[in-house]
C-alpha cells in the first residue's frame, strides 16, 4: 500500500481563489454498530504553510500516534470542532442524515468559537455532500475523493474526530466491558458481535443495524 503525505495544495488553490479560510471535514464511526457517528472539522487559512509532522488520514495512524497528534492539530488549526449524532439518531433518521446532523453541529461549534462559517469553503471528504441537505442556508461545500489522504485540513479533521470518538467509546467500555469497546471502538469485531448475541444490545447500539448482523 502506497502511503501519501497530505498537502495544502487544494486548500491553497481555494484560498488563492478568494476563500478567506477552508474548513476540512471528515467523518468517523460510519460503519460502527455501536456508539455515535462523529464529524470533525479543521480550519486553515493563508497563514498555514507548514503541516504537523506525521499528519495523515487517521486510518493510516496507530492509536498512539493519533492520540499524540490530536492536540497538535487542534493547536495548528485556526479552529477545530467535532459534532456527534447518537446511535439513537442513526436509528431514527438513518446514517446519511445523521452524518449531516453531526456536521451541522460541528459547524455550530465553529460558529460559537467566532468563525464566520458562511464566508469560507467547506472541503468534505468523499464524493457525497451529506451536509448541505441539513442546512437552513446554503454554504459552499466542495467534495473531494480521497481528501482524507490528500488534503491536510481533512486529515487533521479526521484525526481530531477519531480521537474524540475513541475517547467516548473507551469511556463506554468502562460501563459495558463485555463488548470490548476499548479495542474495537464499537465496530463489529468477533468479540463484539458474540457479546451482543450473549448479552443483547445496550442503549448505545444502533439497533436498526443489528438485524442485519446478529442472527
TrEMBL record:
Cofactor note: Manganese or magnesium. Binds 1 divalent metal ion per monomer in the absence of substrate. May bind a second metal ion after substrate binding.
Segments forming domain RNase H type-2: 20-215
Annotated catalysed reactions: Endonucleolytic cleavage to 5'-phosphomonoester
Alphabetically ordered keywords of this record: Cytoplasm, Endonuclease, Hydrolase, Manganese, Metal-binding, Nuclease
Residues bound to a divalent metal cation: 26-27, 125
The keyword Metal-binding belongs to this UniProt entry's keyword annotation: yes
Membrane-spanning ranges: none
GO MF annotation: an example: RNA-DNA hybrid ribonuclease activity
Cofactor(s), names only, from the UniProt record: Mn(2+); Mg(2+)
Database matches in InterPro entries: RNase_HII (IPR022898), RNase_HII/HIII (IPR001352), RNase_HII/HIII_dom (IPR024567), RNaseH-like_sf (IPR012337), RNaseH_sf (IPR036397)
EC numbers for this chain: 3.1.26.4
Pfam families xref list: RNase_HII
Cellular location(s): Cytoplasm
Family listed: Belongs to the RNase HII family.
Alphabetical list of PANTHER family matching this protein: RIBONUCLEASE H2 SUBUNIT A (PTHR10954), RIBONUCLEASE HII (PTHR10954:SF18)
Functional note: Endonuclease that specifically degrades the RNA of RNA-DNA hybrids.
Protein's recorded name: Ribonuclease
Organism: Paramicrobacterium chengjingii
Amino acid at each position: 500500500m502506497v502511503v501519501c503525505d497530505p498537502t495544502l495544495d487544494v486548500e491553497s488553490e481555494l484560498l488563492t481563489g478568494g476563500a478567506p479560510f477552508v474548513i476540512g471535514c471528515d467523518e468517523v464511526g460510519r460503519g460502527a454498530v455501536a456508539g455515535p457517528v462523529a464529524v470533525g472539522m479543521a480550519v486553515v487559512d493563508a497563514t498555514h504553510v507548514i503541516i504537523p509532522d506525521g499528519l495523515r488520514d487517521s486510518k493510516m495512524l496507530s492509536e498512539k500516534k493519533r492520540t499524540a497528534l490530536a492536540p497538535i492539530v487542534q493547536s495548528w488549526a485556526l479552529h477545530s470542532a467535532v459534532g456527534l449524532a447518537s446511535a439513537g439518531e442513526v436509528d431514527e433518521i438513518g446514517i446519511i442524515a445523521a452524518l449531516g446532523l453531526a456536521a451541522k453541529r460541528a459547524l455550530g461549534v465553529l460558529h460559537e468559537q467566532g468563525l464566520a462559517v458562511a464566508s469560507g469553503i467547506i472541503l468534505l471528504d468523499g464524493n457525497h455532500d451529506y451536509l448541505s441537505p441539513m442546512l437552513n442556508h446554503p454554504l459552499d461545500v466542495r467534495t473531494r475523493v480521497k481528501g482524507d489522504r490528500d488534503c491536510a485540513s481533512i486529515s487533521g479533521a479526521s484525526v481530531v474526530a477519531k480521537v474524540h470518538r475513541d475517547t467516548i467509546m473507551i469511556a463506554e467500555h468502562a460501563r459495558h466491558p463485555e463488548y470490548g469497546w476499548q479495542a474495537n471502538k464499537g465496530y463489529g469485531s468477533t468479540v463484539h458481535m458474540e457479546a451482543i448475541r450473549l448479552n443483547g444490545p445496550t442503549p448505545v447500539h444502533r439497533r436498526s443495524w443489528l438485524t442485519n448482523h446478529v442472527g
